[in-house]
Amino acid sequence: QFHLSYSDKESLEREPRGESQQEVLRRAAKDLPVYTRTMSGAIRYCDRCHLVKPDRCHHCSVCDKCILKMDHHCPWVNNCVGFSNYKFFLLFLAYSLLYCVFIAATDLQYFIKFWTNGLPDTQAKFHIMFLFFAAAMFSVSLSSLFGYHCWLVSKNKSTLEVFRAPIFRHRTDKNGFSLGFSKNLRQVFGDEKKYWLLPVFSSLGDGCSFPTCLVNQDPEQASTPGGLNSTSKNENHLFPAKPLRDSQSHLLTDTPSWSETSAKAEKGKVGMSNPALTMENET
Questions:
Q1: Cα separation of 63 and 283, whole Å?
Q2: Per residue in 103-133, pLDDT tens?
Q3: C-alpha distances in angstroms, 19 versus 10, 15, 26, 49?
Q4: Most buried residue among 140, 198, 211, 234 by CB atoms closer than 10 A?
Q5: Cα distance between the two ends of the chain
Q6: From CA 24, how far away is CA 50, in angstroms rounded?
Q7: Would you give the DSSP letter of residue 3?
Q8: Domain range summary for the chain, segments of one domain joined by +
Q9: Residues catalogued as catalytic
Q10: Residue 227 φ/ψ region, left for φ over 0, alpha for ψ in the -120 to 50 degree band, beta for the rest
Q11: φ and ψ at 237, to 5 degrees?
Q12: Where are the alpha helices (DSSP H) in the chain?
């Protein structure tokens, strides 16, 4: 869906950088649920994967491909941490932390005996000391890392978004994807609590579109010709209405939800909102 068609790809490669390429990207992203932009206000496009980048997607230079909702590339698991495995990464940290704490706690009594000369003089002394120090050090490092990612979940952020806040059409907003603690938690772990602590994929959505607090529309009231609500609470952060995935749309049930707009109105809005769209490579 986000990959350029063969004709668009040829047009993009054939035309010089400028308004012609901007028009190709506008046409390709016209019906896509894409709201974030580059620092220069351009549509986020990956010239290595030849696709319009979905929101929160980034190209990993190690994996050499675009990763949905990329958090970081983890050398410990030799893989990128993103939408498809973020819950598993959090559980990996939690399981590892519990295991290290358990080892340190059960080895503590023998470690104390080691320093009080209460153990027989055997080679086991070194094993006991090494085991306790290793478990204790990993417990400290894992607790800090796990706590940091729990904070990211509560704020609905990724590690990359902490260092570089997402840029929307009208401004940069570091909390643009945050819907509140409860909904942020459900977006990663799902609606069924019985699956939260199990290594079963239960995250909401497909990783290509995400609800955002900046889209604020009231379906009970009429929309303007551009598909935008004229009574929006925040008129400085209006977006063209595009559909969310069914598995995520209910996250906005207690806030004004998204509505459909015609292709003609959308085309006009896109043309007006970003007159200076340019291609910009991102890593």
A1: 11
A2: 999 999 888 887 777 777 777 778 888 999 9
A3: 16, 9, 10, 22
A4: 211
A5: 21
A6: 12
A7: B
A8: 6-67, 85-157+176-195
A9: 74
A10: left
A11: -130, 45
A12: 6-14, 19-29, 86-115, 124-155, 159-163, 181-189, 246-249, 263-273
Give the amino acid at 52.
Answer: V
Which two three-digit tokens encode residue 275?
């007159």
Residues 6 or more apart whose CB falls under 8 angstroms from that of 135 comprise: 100, 101, 103, 104, 107
Q: Read off the amino acid at residue 273.
A: S
CA distances from 275 to 37, 40, 41, 122 (A): 13, 11, 9, 77
* Rg for the chain, CA atoms, rounded: 24
| Intervals of the chain under pLDDT 70 | 15, 17-19, 215-250, 252-283
pTM above 0.70, yes or no: yes
**Residue 148 DSSP label:** H
Other CB atoms within a 10 A radius of the CB of residue 77 amount to 12
